[in-house]
Amino acid sequence: MPSGIKDKVVILGMGCSRFGERWDSSPEDLMVEAYAEAMQDAGIDPKQLDAAWFSTHMSDVGTGRGGLPMSIALRLPNIGVTRVENFCAGGSEAVRAAVYAVAAGACDIAIALGVEKLKDTGYGGLPVATVGTYVPQWYPNAVAPANFAQLASAYRHKHKVDAGLLKRAIAHVSVKSHANGVKNAKAHLQKAVTEEQVLNAPIIAEPLGLFDCCGVSDGAAAVIVTRPDIARGLGKRDLVSFKALQVATSNGWEMHSNQWDGSYFHTARIAAKRAYAEAGITHPRDEVSMLEVHDCFSVTELVTMEDLYLSPEGGGVKDVMDGVFDADGAIPCQIDGGLKCFGHPVGASGIRMLYEMYLQLQGRAGPRQLPDPRIGLTHNLGGQPPQNVCSVSIVGSLD
Amino acid sequence: MIGITGYGAYIPRLRLSRKAVVLANAWFAPQFASRAKGSRAMANWDEDCITMAVAAARDCLGVGEDRSHIRGLYLASCTLPFADRLNAGIVSEALTLDDAVDALDIVGSQRAALGALTSALTQSKTTAGQFLILAADTRKTRAASSQELDFGDGAAALTVGSEGVIAEFLGVGLISVDFVDHFRMAGEEVDYQWEERWIRDEGIGKLMPRAITEALRQASVNAADVDHFIFPSTISKIDAQLAKSCGIKPAALVDSLAATVGDTGTPHALLLLAQVLEKATPGQIILVSQFGSGAQALVFRVTAAIAQFRPRRGVSAWLQRGAEENNYTKFLAFKRQLELDRGMRGEQDKKTALTTLYRHKNAIMGLVGGRCQTTGEVHYPPSRISYTPGAPAVDTQTPYKLAERQATVLSWSAEYLSYYPSPPQFYGQVDFDGGGRLLMEFTDLTHGEVDAGTRMDMVFRIKDLDEKRGFVRYFWKATPAREALAGNKET
User: Fold this and answer.
1) A212: which chain B residues are within 8 Å (Cβ-Cβ)?
2) CB-based contact, B348 to chain A, within 8 Å
3) Is residue A165 part of a domain?
4) For A127, B7, B69, B254, which has the most beta carbons within 10 A of its beta carbon?
């Protein structure tokens, strides 16, 4: 067994742009916004950066391919900049690369930055991505809402949940996130919604309505990481360290065998178990203080609570309805508003989640600040239920 | 003995209400007010001659995986999608026929199907094995035309050979004459029609009897002994007049399905023949004829083996499973005669990599997966390494056909976000009986018909249209399994 990443690397600084329909901002502008805040927070000079990892997903909109867009936009001092693309989990992957590089001793200080400019397509929703030359010849012209909506049909079938009850439970997921987003000046959507509004919204992909889907927005986020001793040497206190960084990737078992039942994320369960082991967490429901999950769709968040072993299997509906994951619940989830209110600039989202955990652990979350959080978890998912990349990261105070 | 050894048909599920057509066009074409009766078969947006021919062939061939007895495949049509790419070759791939099959497109006349049949019968005298004769048409017509009401979409299939003959071939009469009752130049969309009275009197009235008389002479059959007389035409009562002039008894007239299906064009004589064969009894004489750039007639005698064959569904079951369509603009849109606003999501490039298609043609066209010989697990698409957790096995898969297996829905959704020609787009994961799973598009269904646990059949359909380059991409879709009629048991 590897010794793991726990407490070997800390966050030196973070930055996050305002997310939204940033009509007046280029992806370069968004990068600068996140980078400037992160550098100021870290209190370092660009020359102190040893390496960079750059997360962006779309190739046809935004910055284009490779590491050059980040290096040029930020005028980095000719350090290595590597583009990371792993669907919607790319942001977390960039962080993992930077953290591993520091832990390995290859770098003293590294930066991970994610950006996505989605609002240059001319239409709502995620842009249609290309998938090679073979897949389009047999795979449906699938869209994200309908891919994730399928969780609902399989979950209902497996747990014998009434369609109306499930619809209300996932509506509560969105109502809760919107309530949180009101308190976040960087969120795209800062408006509360009622359960009635959510239930009556136009259907996008059955049973998901408009408010069951996260927004689509532009944004960037950045994190600068280093070793604890270097951070202390730079005068940093109240350090936030990485406790676990785990990624699980589908190998076709869910998609092609007849064994997976379609109601949960196989990868999330694997990544969660590994992450808890790496972080030394034995009772997640008691030990995790707060979390940011990949709530691309409301139903995704509901089943993810079970996949992260925070709710018992089949118990997600009850926990959601009981308010366990509300801001004043036992395990606040999406305290920043989540993808629901931030939107999902693909390459940036994983780092945006980490940003909120960092602020909360440092007591800097303003009107959203939770009382004394100790352990934060981020769950960042790329792909779709039958085939995906799932990242589970755990951060906490370095004691 | 040479003759017909099997039959099948396909009629698309959608049946366009003629009343809907007449009402929509009443402002322009009030003369059709009296024709607001019955329906015409209407291909779904993802159906064309190729997909309908595949459906008819599967109706005829049954679910058996071994189709090595099919030595020839003739596809007759006047509306084939490809002018230069063997359409019958696409059908052959979908049916997973042996690549030694003699596949041919036979085109250019409304009697192309009878031409294909005649040619196959002739070849059967010297060639072992079976010939598969397929005919299909999806004709475009002008809005508010008589043809729009008269025509229908459909396909038919026959097998021909010397073993298991259910209808013995007795004789053929044909004449090839450039009698232009209608025409369509290459590249044009719709037919140009000449006056019906001239066609009736000078064309059908004079040319058809010559072909019929010759066929009966070869068969040594008296006209009065014909039990079933097939002559499809959109001209009212012309079949009765023709029967009378040839000495065929009125009781032998076979209904042309005008009330429910419409005239399907090239396949129509074979479609009616398929229906007749469902109920024919040993010893009966069938005369099947069709008009187009001349005239052609064939005579068959039903054998005792007729009781041994049943199509999977047959014409009568296809007739039963229709769903009335009252939306005339949907018909125009499906025929690509009405340009709807697709939105930007409809701009996605659908270019097909032909190299990739060829490399994976068995998987794509034939829905052939791979079955691991070690674990029995079925993989789609097939792969070098099997997914068995903890024990990935290399190169253990052998080809495994999925098209004739039923599947059960695991999960599904219906989405309104993307551009789809017939929204909402339904798709989901299905688990095949015997193993294998596929996320696939659903077609031919009504809302509420599908949920987790619903049983599905596979159908070969158009997947995407590459309008920029003029290419059609085909693949398989799932459709709710609908029971065949009693007496038409799945073979």
Assistant:
1) none
2) yes
3) yes
4) B7
Rg (CA), chain B: 23
Most B CBs within 10 Å, among A60, A137, A167, A388, to test the B interface: A137
Asked whether B457 and B420 are in contact (CB, 8 A), the reply is no
pLDDT for B491 beyond 70: no
Is the same domain home to B445 and B311? no
How far does B156 lie from chain A, in Å, by closest CA?
27
In a domain, A354, yes or no: yes
pLDDT value of residue A368 = 97
Which tokens in the block code for residue A261?
A: 């039942």
Q: Mean pLDDT for each 10-residue chunk of chain A (399 residues)?
A: 94 98 97 98 98 93 93 98 97 98 98 96 82 94 95 96 97 98 97 98 97 96 98 96 98 93 98 98 98 98 98 98 98 98 97 98 97 97 97 95
Residue A148 Cα, gap to closest chain B Cα (Å): 9
CA angle A191, A196, A197 (to 5 degrees): 45
Is A127 within a domain?
no
> Helices (H), strands (E): how many in chain B?
13, 22
Together in a domain, A276 and A292: yes
- Predicted confidence at residue B485, as pLDDT, reads 41
Residue carrying the six token digits 């520091």: A102
Q: Most A CBs within 10 Å: which of B367, B417, B426, as the mutation test of the A interface?
A: B417
pLDDT of residue B483: 67
A284 and A146 in one domain?
yes
Nearest CA in chain A to B362: A138
Residues B252 and B356 placed together within one structural domain of the fold = no
- Nearest chain B Cα distance for residue A46, angstroms: 41
Task: Tell me the residue ranges of DSSP E strands in B177-316.
Answer: 182-183, 192-193, 228-230, 285-291, 294-302
A271 and A226 within one domain: no
Q: Quick one: A85 and A196 in the same domain?
A: no
Q: Tell me which amino acid residue B269 is.
A: A
Do B306 and B357 have their domain in common? no
Going by C-alpha positions, the residue among B242, B208, B477, B227 that lies closest to residue B364 is B477
Question: Are residues B270 and B304 both part of a single domain?
Answer: yes
pLDDT tens digits, residue range B28-50? 999 999 999 999 999 999 999 99
**Residues sharing a CB contact under 8 Å with residue B445, sequence separation 6 or more, in sequence order:** B426, B479, B480
Range of the domain at A69: 10-122+218-233
Name the residues of A annotated as catalytic.
Answer: 88, 344
| Whether residue B349 sits in one domain with residue B281 | no
Number of structural domains (chain A) is 2
Q: Does A153 touch chain B (CB under 8 A)?
A: yes
Asked if pLDDT for residue B490 goes beyond 80, the answer is no
Same domain, B195 and B306: yes
Same domain for B319 and B420, yes or no, is no
Q: Is residue A4 part of a domain?
A: no
CB contact under 8 A, B427 and A386: no
**Which chain A residues are closer than 8 Å to B424 by Cβ?**
205-206
Q: Are residues B202 and B237 in the same domain?
A: yes
- Structural domain total, chain B: 2
Tell me, rounded to whole angstroms, the distance of Cα A283 from its chain centroid: 22
CB A301 within 8 A of CB A155: no
Q: Is residue B51 part of a domain?
A: yes
In B82-136, alpha helices (H): 87-94, 112-124
In B, residues 388-427, which contact A (CB 8 Å cutoff)? Answer: 389, 410-418, 420, 424-425, 427
pLDDT digits (tens, 9 = 90+) for B91-100: 999 999 999 9
User: Which of B353, B417, B429 has the CB atom closest to A205's CB atom?
Assistant: B417
B353, B417, B440 ranked by CB distance to A145: nearest: B417
